[in-house]
Amino acid sequence: MTKQLTLVVKRDCPTCTLLEPVYAALAASGIALDVWSQDDPAFPESVPGALDEGLERSFRLGVEIVPTLIRRENGEEVERTWGWDRAEWERVAGLEGLGAGLPPFRPGCGAKNVEPGMPEALAARFGSARLKSRRVPLAPLEDEIEAAYDRGWSDGLPVVPPTEARVLAMLDGTTRDPGEVLGLAPPNLQPCTVEKVAVNAVMAGCKPEYMPVVLAAVEAALDDAFCMHGVLATTYYIGPIVIVNGPVRRAVGMNARGNVLGQGNRANATIGRALQLVVRNVGGGKPQGVDRAALGNPGKYTFCFPEDEEGSAWPPLSESRGAGKGASAVTLFAGYGVMGVVDQDSRTPDALVETFADVFRGLENRNRRNIDAVVVVSPEHDRVFRDGGWSREDLEAALRTALDEPGHETPKLREGGLLIVRAGGGAGMFSAILPGWAATGPVGSIPVTKEVGT
Amino acid sequence: MRNTPVLVDPTGEVEPARREPLARPDSLDGRTVALLDISKARGDVFLDRLHMRLGERGVEVKRYMKPTFARTAPVAVKQQIASEAALVVEGLAD
Question: What is the pTM of this model?
């Protein structure tokens, strides 16, 4: 058995300088010892060491605190300790009597390779081989943001330049392998890897912690039931609308309250945008290309919002669609909007539901049947339903009854196509309908719910 | 000079990373050709000749001029060309 000790230190750390006698004792023990200094090649003075040039060694060893002592046997790391704890050092080194005369314990110092900004920079420098995507070198005077426009990567708004450092940091937001293929991205049916999603999430402005939500949204879009190719290629207004449920909403700071369908919240804005950029870039789906929308809608930049579960008496939408209780999930709906449901007078559920039905009657075209839609119930309307003791199912049933017209075999609202969510600011008796595609159900797009992973 | 930035390709990589120039049109029928004089000596001689030859083929031609060859074209000139013409021929050197 070959035993070897590795020591990582820096002169700028008082604990490291205190331990000179210990380093000398390690060297004198006859055990193979290699010593790396993070800041000064002349340190330590008691044993010969080397400067950790560029901090590559520290990065690869995953050092966080100096001093760090690592024991390897037959080349494999067996144990490590950091800071100064005599008993621990004696155990890891397999030696006794280390640092006699020194205090038994001293905390270490933060390693230079984990100073703010360094992990990302080092990951880009020494870890970029993880990335399989083609690299696109720019000309020396080319502006990164303009370069993204020039190459057709942008939806029209500036994108964050996808540098290796940013993509690697984004990949840290998920435990999934960068090479994992989530599916084939339409319309070009290109394999969509976790890495490609990360590149586009960077461009959209996501934080790494949003990655699990973005991945779930992309998986939902690539689910055959959602029919992303058709959603893209149709002349209709629609695009994917992402509805988020579960603890992840609050964890990443999404806004479910005032202006919930509007601008201003980074997570709402960038998660929806990331999905659209994946379709554009990985799938190759661009307006006036395979995207044949006659008018489109502003939600095709991004349309993502969470349900206000805390403010709702109803179970989360995702649970009503089969996701686990308490699980985070995204539901993808092919739709557009926002169609207002304005009623400041009704004080009973029966009266209020009639207003919702009225908007549906006039939606798009009076002859439209088999409609899919998201109904976003605002808090002040929710209060009326809540006071009347109505569940989500009660509201849906009442809507269907109100919209039942004699002489029509096909219902106004497609069975299974109505998604009722509760969101919005506390003041304003204004709800919304987000209508779906003309091609609903198995002949077109079916809403898809996916649980958010890690 | 700063380091050359390197970006990670966000696309499905079905197209070359190098930007390709726009495809040349098959024909000039119905298209207006812009002739851009960059204000360099005798560029007008070349462009006049081109103007004449295109005119003989019935192609509509419009003439534009940069105030100086030393600088890129003013935005107004670029916008005017983009609005009025489908192709542009530029007399580059003397």
Answer: 0.83
